[in-house]
Amino acid sequence: MSQPQPLIRILPPQLANQIAAGEVVERPASVVKELIENSLDAGANQIQIDIEKGGSQLIRIRDNGCGIGKQDLTLALARHATSKISTLEDLEAILSLGFRGEALASISSVSRLTLTSRPEYQAEAWQAYAQGREMEVEIQPASHPIGTTIEVANLFFNTPARRKFLRTDKTEFAHIDEVVRRIALAKPNVTFVLTHNEKKVRHYKAVEDRSLEQQQKRVATICGDEFIQQATHIDWQHDDLHLYGWVGSPTLARPQNDVSYSYVNGRMMRDKTINHAIRQAYGDLLPKETYPAFVLFLDIDPSYVDVNVHPAKHEVRFHQGRLVHDFIYQGVLNALQAQPHLPLSESEL
Ligand code: ADP
Ligand code: MG
Predict the structure, then answer these.
(1) pTM for this model (two decimals)
(2) What positions does the domain DNA mismatch repair protein S5 occupy (predicted)?
(3) Contact (CB, 8 A) for 265 and 305
(4) How far is the CA of 36 from the centre of ligand 2 (A)?
(5) Could you report the per-residue pLDDT of 244-296, keeping only the tens digit for each?
(6) What is the 3-class SS of 208-241, one letter each residue?
(7) ipTM of the shown complex
(8) Residue ranges of domains in the chain, CATH in brackets
């Protein structure tokens, strides 16, 4: 009997990348998130985001970060290629937003991607171009100030099933707008400009200093004056845990609250532990079926939290969930009790 042919094969890199892209690149807003995070990791303090047709035609992100050298341009687009970690220990101490080395490979496998960059040590800029299908990267000289521009054109042009799931330009842009808001809220020292079809839609100017007053400015711009007027500032610390931000008065509670932002080590999260602790702190103060308004940042030793739970990094896992929960609960409770218009708690009567 002849030996049967093997049935198992290793997928070509292009297909493997497209499959991985399914997890990271859900829609144009996910591309925008990944690219802005890269700009922030590169130390940029000016990020320009240009969108055409809800991002399906063009997403262009330009930053003044550290740039990518010519020798690294092709590698930047390869899968599992990253400058941010090299060992498991690095991952456990991670402070950068990226580390999976996947975003650019995934995005370039489902779009026409151009990466132009110039680091300070290079006199001229270089440009890499990758177009979905073959994944062959071409490199040529270009002109660009120090920093990086990434252009993502015709997203999902070669994955029609994905393209079909795109909503109207208006809806896709609304998602992008929200992603930019979330990130801008956490990075008041960075200027963000967002345009849609060549019209300037947002301009979040970097704050002048790290004073509370300046920080509040960015929050007020994004969450509205009403929020900041009816919110209490919180700054709560215990051992390695630090919780700060703003807790809205119960009068700001809504059935679907637009202002509910929580971050872990600068990363936007929707985390059950955090949400539960916050809700519990509000307790009966919240009218039924409503959610509180808050902007809260939790800083925690990165070794106490696993950020590698989902490719898009929407979730974290705390090693000591109970401890984190109780810490947040206490912090928010204290802030709420400090709000002048609230009834005193039983222990104070
Ligand atoms: P990750 O962010 O997980 O490392 P990416 O695929 O998003 O993976 O990016 C790959 C690499 O390309 C990064 O590790 C970084 O070295 C480089 N890079 C990407 N975007 C930028 C940028 N805007 N500025 C400087 N370097 C960048
Ligand atoms: Mg990245």
Answers:
(1) 0.92
(2) 219-337
(3) yes
(4) 8
(5) 999 999 999 999 888 999 999 999 888 899 999 999 999 999 988 999 999 99
(6) CCCCHHHHHHHHHHHHCHHHHHCEEEEEEEECCE
(7) 0.99
(8) 13-204 (3.30.565.10), 219-341 (3.30.230.10)
